[in-house]
Design goal:
By secondary structure, the chain is α+β, with helices and mostly antiparallel strands. The chain has helices spanning 3-7, 41-50, 81-96; strands at residues 10-13, 56-58, 72-76. Strands 1-3-2 form a three-stranded antiparallel sheet, with helices on one face.
Amino acid sequence: MTKRDYASRKMVIWPENLDSTRARRLGRKLSLGDSVKKPSVQEVYEASVELGLNPELVEASYPGNWMYSRGYVLVDKKGSKSELLRMVAGKIREKRGGH
């Protein structure tokens, strides 16, 4: 894949992917040390804006928790998913005051 192809791709970030209160089998993608407690979709969006990921907020229900509609954030793919999730979680922690 060329650099041009990579830059034009998008990636979905669900708040559940960053949530330290969820088990990995329920959607958490990061280690407990890297994740944050109950991030909102708005926090994920704001962190993505600050990181320059060109985010779009989308209303939808997480497949593993379809009864509750929280939404997800669609961002430019700039690296691997785990790298981006760590950056977004770090930015949320920073905005919350380092917790």
